[in-house]
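Hi C.,

You asked whether I'd gotten around to modeling the 455-residue construct. I have! Everything is below, sequence then structure, no commentary in between.
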Amino acid sequence: MRLAELTGKRMALLGLGVENQALGEYLLSKGLRFAVCDRQPEVAVRREWGDRVEQWRLGPDYLAGLADFEVIWRTPGISPLRPELRAAQAAGARLESQTRLFVERCPCPLIGVTATKGKGTTSSMLTRILQESRASGLYLGGNIGLPPISFLDALQPTDLVVLELSSFQLQDLEQSPQIAVVVNITQDHLDYHATREEYVEAKRNICRHQGPGEVLVVNQDCPTASGFAHEHPGTVWTFSTIGPVAQGAWVEAGQLWLRRPGAEGEVVCRVEEIPLRGRHNRENAAAAATAAAAAGASPAQIRAGILGFAGLPHRLERVGEYGGVLYYNDSLATTPDAAVAALQAFEEPVVLIAGGSSKGADFSSLGAQLAAGRVKAVVLLGEEGERIAQAAVQAGYAGELVRGCASMAEAVAQARLRVEPGEVVLLSPACASFGMFANYKDRGEQFKRAACGGG
């Protein structure tokens, strides 16, 4: 899209989260004007942006009258399937997004990474690997927390950008990254997407528009992800935690292997050297290694990057050891599958803190893991706590279920009463955070404070 096409258009930023704030700064820097529509009655940037914004539509009626605009810049958290947006489109409005604008205007190669779970860790580990082969000109942005539009003007054709992409950000893309990485696809955000099929189709945009000279990296162990490779026009690399692949990385006999085109398999590192716990993090490492190899990194550079990766906050983050008990913060585990993966990372007995607000999830897999694993007790939070309890009982879980905790401090205190030295207290909620907490970061930070405070 040429920015000149936007001059004089009636435009609105719909939702003023992190992405649209960055987009607003970008548009204003180009001399473009717009309205702001947001459900909050007041927003922090109003004083700064002032009369450069044509109109402020704030409060509960912010979605009314969207047909007044020719271009609507949707924040990722607002689904394009909402009836108000569909009505605006029917009236002639064009839906756009910060991610779509960035991808269309980016002057350098892009590596896009998506997954139901693990895309943040994979993107960050991949970036750490690529730092071994590039002294400069490497950027990480997207769902990881840095809107890429904020560094668009700094990019040169020789640079490289890694983008972590959610289904919300992929939903309206009409151009795919040159290297697309699909770590896994299960089920998530059914409170946002109409169906699982619509969710998968949003994810497919990461590679849907690739051409013959471009690369798709997919998980050989995931039927949905590997299905993206069918009739793909470009080069396909795969990875696995089960066994060898023709071109890519895999885990076998306690080691992470890599096979590049026309070469024999090479050992990258021992699995025990990967600095993150759990099978799901071996999957993330295999994905990052494969994508890095497709981007030209050597096995030695891949090894150095993996071993030098420290992990991310709120992703199975070791908080500390207090009174002989290990505390792990996995607040970003907002789906049952993510919580199952976290539980499978531990051989020690676990007291689990779980629950939160609804995303329309099915907790049967979590219930089965609770019944089969070494979980001594489950401390339940939020509106979904009782549904998790019901799934656990139906699966035959015989441990203790602790209901009625009104705060994270209370949940940690209850967990501490039920754990002994050498065991683990794990926050892995399997649910969204809203209601009791501002977001998953707030939830994780409250857990860390409570864990440290009682140490």
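If it helps when you're writing up: The longest helix spans residues 279-294.

Thanks,
B.
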